[in-house]
Amino acid sequence: MSAVPRDEQAELSNDEIDARIHLAIIDAILDHQLPPGTRLVEAPLCEAFGVTRGTLRRVFVKLAHERVIDLQPNRGAVIAMHDVKEAREVFEARVILEGGSVKSLAGKRKVLPELRALVKREHALREQGNWGEWIRLSGEFHIKLSEANQNNIVSAYLRTLIARTSLLIGLYETPKRNSCSADEHGGILDAIEQGDAERAARLMEHHLGEYASELLTETGQPKEVDFARLFSPVRAA
């Protein structure tokens, strides 16, 4: 999270401030700074972000709608816990949509140089240990792969599903996973460019199925969080 100059902060609208707080919390989840079950205490968070409770609660409502947090009676906002069944259902929905999408692309024998470059960036981020950015770029690969098929309805559904699975990966998975998604993405692209529709769909199913089977085997534990230190770079004026 990069620091925002004070003079720039002063010019931000309420929507822009809300968006920065929302993104900061998502970033912290993807970077494993806020494990499932962590309580988001309003007073220190308002101080950390330099905002009122009303502003923070607007962001909480959006995060709750996205199922990133739970708003619990007498506890307030808590980073959501997700069960295995829910995680697998989300990934299964992606398999159905993305399997069909890559089959269609392979039938057209699409050549996708932009996605080849993205896979190289994925690999570099993984090697650098940049976990949060790698999760984002991995999701972007799947979105752009769907967009290459030029079906706006499928792409819209996938954006929602990919956002949810990216958060699940950020919440529950650790960087020690042995298989490298960049290599798996490269294999899917190979099958598409070679016109092998069945192999492309099979590789996509295996790729997403691995996440579904391994997700939630180890869960993070709630911990004390220094919100002032964690969120000071995005503090409002």
Q: How does this structure look, described?
A:
The chain has 237 residues and is mainly alpha-helical. Helix content is 66%, strand content 4%. The protein contains eleven helices and three strands. The chain has helices at 6-10, 14-30, 42-49, 53-65, 84-107, 113-128, 131-147, 152-172, 181-193, 197-214, 227-231; strands at residues 39-40, 69-72, 76-79. Strands 1-3-2 form a three-stranded antiparallel beta sheet, with helices on one face. Strand 2 and strand 3 (76-79) form a beta hairpin. Helix 5 (84-107) packs across helix 8 (152-172), helix 5 packs antiparallel against helix 10 and helix 6 runs antiparallel to helix 7 (131-147). It is elongated, with a radius of gyration of 19 Å. The two termini are 16 Å apart. Residues 1-9 have low confidence and may be disordered.
